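Weekly structure sync, notes
Attendees: PL (lead), two postdocs, one rotation student
Agenda item 3: pending single-chain targets
PL asked that the sequence for the first pending target be pasted directly into the notes so everyone works from the same version. It is reproduced below exactly as submitted, 164 residues in total.
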Amino acid sequence: MLVMESLQPYPFKGFWIRAVASIIDGIILLILVLLLASISLVIFGAALGEGAGFGMFLLVFLLAALATILYKPIMEASEYQGTFGKYALGMKVIDKNGQKITMTSSFVRTILYIIGAQAFLLCLGVVMIGFTEYKQGLHDILANTYVVTNHWEGPVPLEDNFGA
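Predicted structure, written out during the meeting:
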């Protein structure tokens, strides 16, 4: 007689849906940055001359870059538990207990993600999402976080292989 294993829901979100969420976030941030930079160029360029307008364009661009770096940690530690891209696609970022992650965890996760996504060799840290058991990238593993469906409640279903 064939014994069926208990079927547990699989809450973890994989590489491709997370890549689409990242693209959505990139588009949102690009539009925001270009809008802010263009407004500063028009307003300050008309009021103070071309040189001042270009200086303000660069200042707003740098401030927007800072906002982009803060976007992920603020959104992931918020009630949304993820960026707008993740939220739109039904995902959230949690700790192993199923709780909202802290701002510190989210900031560490974001810095590790930026490093992992930018560096060619470390890019494998992002690609590994598609190959790990719990669909974690290096940034998730080091920050001890999981990306799950937004319907998931409670601790993540981790197998305890210690001593097995």
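Discussion points:
- Residues 15-149 form one domain.
- The beta strands are 91-95, 145-149.
Action: rotation student to compare against the earlier draft before next sync.
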